[in-house]
Amino acid sequence: MNQxxxxxxxxxxxxxxHDGYGYSCxxxxxxxxxxxxxxxxxGGGLQFHWVDHKTKxxxxxxxxxxxxxxxxxxxxxxIFYAEVMKLTKISASGxxxxxxxSPDIVIDDMVNDALTIKKITADxxxxxxxxxxxxxxxxxxxxxxxxxxxxxAHVMKKYPEAKIINSLPIDEVYKIxxxxxxxx
Length: 184
Prior knowledge:
The protein has helices at 75-85, 103-126, 148-158, 170-179; strands at 7-17, 20-29, 32-39, 47-50, 57-62, 68-73, 127-131, 137-141, 163-164.
């Protein structure tokens, strides 16, 4: 889940690009839009369009080999990069050293999490889902003849040790799905 508590993404739109799928979204800090971001689906990095493009500030970051790097940007850009720099390093495979995360990785993770939560929320409206004692998730489709109340009663009778997750906060449900390897 999002490691930057004061940042969220919104207005996510997915589309097909040349080399795969892309998206556009808004980056919000404390609920206020600070940037429009585009992943154009043509390869390459994200495109950040900062709302405060007229302000000037020095942005401090690290290169992929952890060398300090600075460039001219906007005030919001400098604030965002400073927050990203505080995040824990990304572990690498093999003998490669850990590396600092990047704004692109953080935004991609935030967008993927938001889209996953949207899908989970939609699924929970259509199904009663339980977490069994062994961690396995089971679902029952809600219908006119199998209402939520009927399904809940059936589930609790058949699986008394199970936990119905539909009414849990979405952050908890997300963690349960992650633990059950339903999402990557």
